[in-house]
Specification:
single chain; about 180 residues; mainly alpha; Arc Repressor Mutant, subunit A; 8 helices
Amino acid sequence: MPSRPEAAAASRADKRPGSHAGTLHDAANAEAQVKVLQQFRIVFNAVKTHFQQVERQAGVGGAQVWALSIIRDRPGIGVNGLAAALNVRQPTASNLVRNLALQSMIDVRREGSDRRAVQLHATTAGRRMLKRSPGPFAGVLPQALAALDAQALLRLETDLAALIRLLDADESAATIPLAQL
């Protein structure tokens, strides 16, 4: 059995241009890259297709449908509670609330002792729009992720974190709903 330094040297030799083992490794790596790229395309297209279907059937964007479904399910929720439920920043939730209110899909009320805080309620028009909307309201990706077991989610989280580091991506994008991209 070769020592660690010998094994490392053999491994480096196998990856040199022109070596047979390096060529096999490079070909397998290139094939894996193509497959993963195709898988990302499939995921992105599934998400995009779902949001297009939502907009076609409901007449509003997917983020608005998701927000409205939360407001319907939690009457009286505030903007901060909505932001937490959607996992978005408060200004993003405020914009969704403003658009839903302008379309008469929700009522924004100031009830109770603290008149500064608002409570959100779905209107009849909002409930009707949700009945026209295809599910899942949160989107197909969150639904699929919820169906994965804990080990698969941990592997995916770890591997995607490595990819995000390599992309040097802006991590603040994590709070932008996919429907708004």
